[in-house]
Structure formats: C-alpha cells, structure tokens
Amino acid sequence: MTMNTATEAAAQAAAPYLSINNVEVIYNHVILVLKGVSLQVEQGSIVALLGANGAGKSTTLKSISNLLHAERGDVTKGSIEFKGARIDQMTPNELVRRGVIQVMEGRHCFGHLSIEENLLTGAYTRKISRGELNANLEKVYHYFPRLKTRRSSQAGYTSGGEQQMCAIGRALMAKPEMILLDEPSMGLAPQIVEEIFEIVKDLNTKEKVSFLLAEQNTMVALRYADFGYIMENGRIVMEGEAKELAANEDVKEFYLGLAGEGRKSFREVKHYRRRKRWLS
Amino acid sequence: MGFFLETFLGGLMTGLLYALIGLGFVLIFKASGVFNFAQGAMVLVAALAMARFSGWATEALGSMVLGNVLAFLMSVAFMIAVAIVIERLVLRHLVNQELTTLLMATLGITYVLDGLGQMVFGSSVYTIDVGMPKEPLFLFEGVFEGGMLINPDDLIAAGVAATLVATLALLFQYTKVGRALRAVADDHQAAQSVGIPLGRIWVVVWAVAGIVALVAGIVWGSKLGVQFSLSTVALRALPVVILGGLTSVPGAIIGGLIIGVGEKVSEVYLGPFVGGGIEVWFAYVLALVFLLFRPEGLFGEKHIDRV
User: Which residue ranges does the record assign to the ABC transporter domain (chain A) (predicted)?
Assistant: First the structure.
C-alpha cells in the first residue's frame, strides 16, 4: 500500500473500530517479533490474519488482548485503539469488560472443569442474574449443540473439535463485540474445521460479533473472511479483500500451493518478494 | 475396648489438626497448581500474631472474650495483608512461569515469613488462651468399664475443622469465585484471557489460606503453645495431602484422619514389636506407598492425558 492509499483509507474510516498502528513487540527485551504492524478491523466484519509459522500472527492478537505480559512481551511502539479509545495498557480483565476477548491458540480449555463450568467461567466479568446466565448458556448451546450433549463431561476428555467449540463458547459467554480467534483449525479434521468456520460466520451475521482470526489454513480462512492481511516475519506484506487475495497469483502460489500451470518443480518455485512498506 | 477407642479418638483428633494444616496446602494448590511450602510458616506467623494481639487486646479491653474476638479480627486482617503483600511482591511477577519457579518462590516466602514473623512478634514461646474448656470428659461409662476419656477442646477443634471444610468445599464447587479459582489452577493464561483477574484471585486464595492457617495456628497453639517448631508441624501435614489428594478439600480431612488414627493405633499396638517410634515415620511411609500406586491420592483430580 502506498502512502496515498493509506491516508485515503484513514480518511474514509474516521474512527476505525479496531485499529492497530505501527505496533512493535519485543519479547524479553531483546527479541523483536513485530516490526511495525498496522491493521484495521471494521465493525461487523471477519478479518483474517494469514501467514506461516512464526510470522507474528499470534503475537499480534496477544498484543491486542494484552496477554503478552504473561509471556514477557511488551508493546514498545505504536498504539492500539478500540472504538476510538487506547487499549494497549489495559488489563485483559478490562478488555473483556469492553467486549474484546481472545480465544487462544490450542484451545486452552480448563481440563478439570466440565464443559458447562468452562462456559460459566466465560461470564466471570459479567454481573448478571442466574436467569440471564442460563439464557446465555442456552444460546451458546444453540450454536454448539454438541456442547450440550457433553455439558457435564470434563473438558480435558472431550475431542479437539469439542474443545475448540468450548473455547469459542466460553468467549461468547462474556458477550463480546469482538473475538480474537487464534488458529481455530489447529489439529482438527477438515470437516470439523468447516463446521467451526460455519458457526463463526453464523455468529458474525446473527450476533454481530466481529472477528479477527489468525489462520495458517489460508484457503478456508479466505473463504469465510471479508478482508485479509498476510504477515511475514513480523510485518504485514499484503492486504486486500478476501476474494481478491484468494484470486491473487502470488497468494495462490505461496500459500495455497497452486501455481498457474499445474505442478511445478520445487526448484522453480518463486521466492517471496517482500513488498517494501515505507509507511507501516 | 475403652483403651482402643481412646487411642482411636486421640488419633482422630491429631488427624484433624493435620487436616487443618493440609487444607491450606490444598487451597493454594487448587488455585495455582503450586505446592505452597510456606503454609507452615503461615501457620506460625498467624499463631504468633494471634498470641500477641490477644495479649494486647485482652489487656486493653480488660475482657478475655472481647479481647480474643478483637485479636482474631486483627489477625485475619493481618493475614489478608500478608496475602496482598505476597501477591504484589512475588506472585505478580511470576504469572505464567514454570511451576518449579513458583515452588521455589514459596520456599523463599517460607524463610521470609519465618524471619519477619519472629522479628515483629518476638521469638519466645507464647500461649494462646481462647478459653477452650480443658477439663477432660468421661463418656460411655455405662457402656463399658472405665468409660472413655475425651478432651472437650478436641471436640471443639473437630467442629471448627468440619465447618471450615464444608464451607470451603461448597465455595470451590458452587460459587463463581470457586470456579474461577479452579480455572486459574488449570490454566493461568486461559483464565486471564476470559477476563479473570489473576492478581485478585491470588490475593483471595492466599488470604483464605492465611485464615485457615490462623485457625490451625489457634488450635495447635492453644494445645501446645506458639513457638518456632509450629512451622515444622506443617511437614507432618505433607503426607496428609499426598494421601488425600492435593486437589481435594474433603481429601485433606480424610487423609488427616487416616494418618492421625494410623499413627496412634500403630504406635500403640505395633510399636512394642518393632521397638516403638512408628508414629514418627508412619505417615511418610504411607505417603510413599501412595505416591507409588496412586499418585493423585484418594480423591485428587487425575492428571488428564489425551493420546
């Protein structure tokens, strides 16, 4: 993106819903992981953050949800704004209250708690009556009928797909406006991945929850997302409408493994041409 | 018959005292997944605080009942303050670190508490007198010859322990805070991600563990006096929680009772054959056997492994 289009885009969206501006993250005071990442999420959209292992997708999400501190990471430059307010110094607790919640990579269900107890912990920040709580549980069970059948089993003994659903359901219990979804497809069978993305889309349209999702499974993610960013080495290297990205020759080649003229010898595969970004 | 029952009951009572200390371990283990070595030091500090506060308060108010009530409240406040300081200075900086790191930190806390406690409250032997009846009672004199000798203060201690356990078990199982505590124990970061404030949870759990330590300290202290050796009593509660399961509140009690009774009965009936001294090692051998064959204890949560 050139400087011009950047300013245009900024002018178009007066107060972006979620915006990350030139964020730099350093772990342990020495390891530079994000080298100036900027991205925006519009209200009510699904935005995919794509890229290979170690590109910085998870770090980006954690810098928003502020779970970085626990891993000795720090946002050293840039700013993160949600609905016009700076959120980069807030605790995860305050953020959840504001409606931003993260579903962590690898599910992270509470293994010794039952599925239902897991869901209930999601409502920790909300001061609501028993009735409202139950109504909320029912709603989550409506989206994830599988969870209802397993409601009293210990989460640690449920399948990977059920755990992923449990993690998303748990986040829903906090009544979020925006869910940061980290690698929902990890280690799941393609069919289950499809099922989970369908539910994400459903939540997006019916419950008006915005999603920023980090994915390695580019093909699936772009099918469900509205907009996409591609990360490489701690930088955003490409962005665009999901459809455009999916059709882009470079993306096809690098992430989808589909080159224009059928199979290619590994020797001829192009190396990535990083786009220079003067204003990041 | 009377003698056996007396031994048995004596064991139960000692067991309850172990259980009270074991409870403190279980609480902190449940909420952070860490074995808290400092529990013994907390019992000592709590008992010291209670002993000194009750001395001052009784003198100032001129009434033993009022003085003790005031001293108890002051000690509770003191243990809460200790919990807050521990969270600020130590735990806050160790979020999401290796469990070994946290374990070592609790070892450090032990020494600091031991030292500071004695520096602030003095290191001589104190007594706690909460006015427990000391006159022994004779029961069942009609049932069998000689009846049975029982200390009423033991009965009171038993009542206190039972109430404490019931309350804590309910708290953990059915309240929002209890659920949050268990969630934190399972996964710090995930708990944080759903908005559970770790700091506050830790203050709560250390404060509750401090209050449990206070109760244990009062009960032990009023029987045996308050002195440094109180902090090593905690080591005898170690096998109790291994037996009962580190994550189970009722387990701590049942483990305590089994060990208390086992110790006393084996000492009296088996002791003579092996030259005595069984009481000293009985608990540890039992714990070892459990570690070999059922490491999660009688009621502990099984470690979940998915293949």
Answer: 18-258
